[in-house]
C-alpha cells in the first residue's frame, strides 16, 4: 500500500466507494450492532443513515478474525487499489465483477 503522507491538514487517505449491496447482510447487521451498542459489539465502522465506512488494514494478517470471507475479499480489492477504507453507500458504485447481496 502506498505511504500515507501527513499534510498541514492531516492525513489524506483513499477509499473504495461501493454500493451497500456489495456488503453481505450479516456484515451490515454487524455494523448496525456496532453503532447501536456504542462501539462495544459488532463490526467496527463509521456509519450514517445511508451506509458505512470500514477501515482496511494494510496487512492481510491484521484483518479481524470475525470478518466474513466476503468482506475480507473486498478488503483485498481495496488494498490492491491503495485504499485505506471501503465506503459502502446506498447510492455507491455497483461493480459488476463483485458479488451483490441486495
Summed up:
This protein is α+β, with helices and mostly antiparallel strands. The protein contains two helices and six strands.
Task: Please characterize this protein's 3D structure.
This protein has 102 residues and is α+β, with helices and mostly antiparallel strands. The chain is 24% helix and 22% strand. It contains two helices and six strands. It has helices at 25-36, 69-80; strands at 6-7, 10-11, 15-19, 46-48, 51-55, 85-89. Strands 3-6-5-4 form a four-stranded mixed beta sheet, with helices on one face. It has a two-stranded antiparallel ribbon with strand order 1-2. A hairpin with a 2-residue loop joins strand 1 (6-7) and strand 2 (10-11).
Defining key terms:
102 residues; four-stranded mixed β-sheet; two-stranded antiparallel sheet; 2 helices; alpha+beta; 6 strands; 22% strand
* Cα end-to-end separation: 30 Å
Which class best fits the helix and strand makeup? alpha+beta
Helix-strand pattern: EEEHEEHE
Question: What overall geometry do the principal axes of the alpha carbons give?
Answer: globular
The Rg value, from CA coordinates, equals 13 Å
Put simply, the count of helices is: 2
Number of strands: 6
Name the quaternary structure: single chain
- Low-pLDDT segments: none
Largest sheet: 4 strands, mixed
Helix content: 10-25%
Average pLDDT level: 93
Strand order of the largest sheet: 3-6-5-4
Strand content: 15-25%
Present the secondary structure layout.
Layout: E1 6-7, E2 10-11, E3 15-19, H1 25-36, E4 46-48, E5 51-55, H2 69-80, E6 85-89
Parallel strand pairs: 3-6
Antiparallel strand pairs: 1-2, 4-5, 5-6
Amino acid at each position: 500500500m502506498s505511504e500515507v503522507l501527513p499534510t498541514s491538514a492531516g492525513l489524506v487517505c483513499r477509499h473504495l466507494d461501493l454500493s451497500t449491496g456489495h456488503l453481505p447482510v450479516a456484515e451490515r447487521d454487524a455494523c448496525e450492532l456496532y453503532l447501536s451498542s456504542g462501539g462495544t459489539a459488532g463490526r467496527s465502522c463509521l456509519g450514517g443513515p445511508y451506509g458505512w465506512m470500514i477501515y482496511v488494514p494494510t496487512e492481510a494478517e491484521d484483518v479481524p478474525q470475525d470478518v466474513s470471507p466476503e468482506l475480507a475479499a473486498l478488503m483485498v480489492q481495496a488494498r490492491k487499489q491503495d485504499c485505506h477504507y471501503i465506503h459502502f453507500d446506498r447510492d455507491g458504485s455497483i461493480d459488476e465483477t463483485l458479488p451483490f447481496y441486495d
